[in-house]
Design goal:
It is built from 3 helices and 8 strands; from the N terminus they run βαββαβαββββ. It is an alpha/beta fold and 163 residues long.
Length: 163
């Protein structure tokens, strides 16, 4: 199966990533990972990898056009991509969706988020002032996580591709 003894080469895009995320990706997953962390403006689109992780970080996701262009290159290769917070917003922009500045943002501990697969609620820490406009998601994409307080998008997923 996919979770074999094969070592997985994961590129992690650092947009302000917390060190604990690195620790988790390297030590707390059920497979061997070689992790290469690169800065937000690194030309990672053509790098050798088995998957791409898009980190959290501050700011307006539309300001990262060089990053968005590199994400599109990885998407064209059909490789798995996972983004959290700002990374989710960058993935949405690369897919053709839009983002918007929230009036207050979602900030603080104990933010309820609904996982749309089993419609189960999780409690998460958050600190972001931008969100994905769910109505702008292109065909094939759907909301993966929704904030239970304000119904803003917290995650997206493609229906057939590994994004």
């Amino acid at each position: 199966g996919y979770l074999s003894e094969k070592e997985i080469r994961l590129v992690a895009l650092d947009c302000g990533m917390k060190h604990n995320i690195v620790r988790h990706l390297v030590y707390n997953v059920p497979y061997k990972v070689t992790l290469q962390v690169v800065p937000w403006d690194h030309p990672f689109g053509d790098m050798e990898m088995d998957g791409l992780f898009l980190s959290n970080g501050p700011g307006d996701p539309t300001m990262g056009q060089v990053t968005i262009d590199n994400i599109k290159k990885v998407m064209q290769r059909g490789l798995p991509i996972f983004g959290i917070c700002l990374g989710n917003q960058l993935l949405a922009l690369a897919a053709g969706a839009k983002t918007y500045k929230m009036k207050f943002g979602n900030r603080g501990m104990n933010q309820p988020v609904i996982d749309m697969r089993p419609t189960r609620c999780c409690i998460t820490p958050q600190n972001h002032g931008f969100a994905v406009d769910a109505d702008s998601l292109p065909p094939g994409w759907m909301q993966f996580f929704i904030n239970a307080n304000d119904q803003s998008n917290e995650g997206i997923i493609h229906k057939t591709m590994p994004w």
